[in-house]
Amino acid sequence: MWRFKQIARFISVCTFWKELLENASVFWPKLHSAYPPETLELIISRNVSAPLRVSCSAKEEARTKLDLLELATKHSTRWSSLKFEGVICDVVKEQLQTHTGNIAELCVLNTQSTVGGLVTLSIPDGRPIHHLALDGVKIPWDMSRLRGVRSLQLSRILWNPPSMTQLRMVLASSPGLQYLRLFKIGDLLEFHSGDSSSMLFLPELSTLILQDLSERSISHLLTHIQAPACRCIIAADIPFSIASDPAFTDLIAPAFRTSSRMTLSSSGASIFIHSAPAPRVTLAWNRSMKEPVGINIRMRRNRSGVTSKEDVQSALQNTVVAHGPRSLAVTFIKSLSEVTIITAAEVLQLLPSTNAIAVKPDVDCQNIMTYLITGDGEASGFPCPDLEILNLTPKKDEEVELIKTFLRLHQKSVQESAGAPVRPLKRLLLPQNILDILEIDGLLEGLEARCPS
């Protein structure tokens, strides 16, 4: 990444470097609103022919950004990239609509991106835009410049977003697309296109992020995109109903394969699945971000209908079970819903390879401990033989007694196991008063036992 201070240091190395750097336009590519006026004039004087990148940061005053745009527009035919963060007044809007015909990279983040502050830009015809990031800004979605996009980020466009037909046209004409993020986009209407059921093949797509979309929009995209190279998927509010769709399971498979460790959280009504560490992104311009890897998805009951236990079981079977990470941690959290679709024991029954279990304080662990002791009543041996870490917050005497029973049986099973060995428990996290009771009973021998941090 180009830095003005770096160039200044290189110039001081020797006379040869000084002459080379001062007379080569390619070493002076960027005009930034953080630079003082004399620095901007110096860059313009030394870059007389090479492309220019213009960047207006949200940190600077509006007047400073307007001054930069006024200077830069004199050379707008050489703009290759424009990034603008801030309030888009009429003057800025006019500059964006007049001088962006030659750019291949456009990032406009409108800091007034409420419904009332949504800005409409009439981008002029020109060269194809390869990298596009819009926040609180809409443009003509069917413009020819959106063919061949390589990264696309649309956020906080709640009113008059692109229709699904228009979005599909952009995606279908961009086989080299590598990054796609849709965040807080209004319902992508108009599903009436004749080819809306056809698959969108994106062979180079490596990152897919879908957040705060309507149920039908996220369902359509997750079951109509083919992306064999997609190593990062972040998606929220995925209805359980699409989990058995082969297109969805094929889409998430590469991201699962990149993850050796996985964490699953269940509230009984929702399932959260993420690799460890979980991939994270910000609203920063994706062009400068390190490519995330892994999976972070939330699946929940359908808004439009009742979700059955079979739907949730199918979702687990087609995600975590199907792709079997080498390390799986399961956390049980309190449900915000009054309806429990699947119990903790039923989740563990599907995930016998679990090697870490955590139960949050507001969750009753009696059901979980009973299952770990007795299993489903049909198979012999422990239901989770790979279990190494147990994190509990028991509140009842009955739960403490179950923990004691489990530890005694588990220790005995480890000593006696032969054909199907049970792994020794390595770490036990419990409140200190419970640890003191177990210590007195001699049940903590060989364990790393401590309070949760």
Characterise this structure:
This protein is α/β, with parallel strands linked by helices. It contains 13 helices and 21 strands. It has helices at 4-11, 15-22, 37-46, 62-72, 90-98, 164-172, 215-222, 246-257, 309-323, 344-350, 366-374, 397-416, 432-440; strands at residues 30-32, 52-56, 79-86, 105-110, 119-120, 131-135, 137-138, 151-157, 179-185, 200-201, 207-211, 225-226, 232-239, 261-266, 270-275, 294-300, 327-332, 356-359, 389-391, 427-429, 448-450. Helix 8 (246-257) packs across helix 9 and helix 11 (366-374) packs parallel to helix 12 (397-416). The mean pLDDT is 85.
In short:
With 453 residues, the chain is an alpha/beta fold. The chain is 30% helix and 22% strand.
Question: Which range best describes the helical content: under 10%, 10-25%, 25-40%, 40-55%, 55-70% or over 70%?
Answer: 25-40%
Sheet with most strands: 17 strands, mixed
Mean pLDDT over the residues:
85
Radius of gyration: 28 Å
Q: What is the overall shape?
A: elongated
Topology, number of strands: 21
Could you list some keywords that capture this structure?
two-stranded parallel ribbon; alpha/beta; 453 residues
Question: Any chance you could write out the topology, listing elements then pairs?
Answer:
Elements: H1 4-11, H2 15-22, E1 30-32, H3 37-46, E2 52-56, H4 62-72, E3 79-86, H5 90-98, E4 105-110, E5 119-120, E6 131-135, E7 137-138, E8 151-157, H6 164-172, E9 179-185, E10 200-201, E11 207-211, H7 215-222, E12 225-226, E13 232-239, H8 246-257, E14 261-266, E15 270-275, E16 294-300, H9 309-323, E17 327-332, H10 344-350, E18 356-359, H11 366-374, E19 389-391, H12 397-416, E20 427-429, H13 432-440, E21 448-450
Parallel strand pairs: 1-2, 2-3, 3-4, 4-6, 5-7, 6-8, 8-9, 9-11, 10-12, 11-13, 13-16, 14-17, 17-18, 18-19, 19-20, 20-21
Antiparallel strand pairs: 14-15, 15-16
Helix pairs in contact: 8-9, 11-12
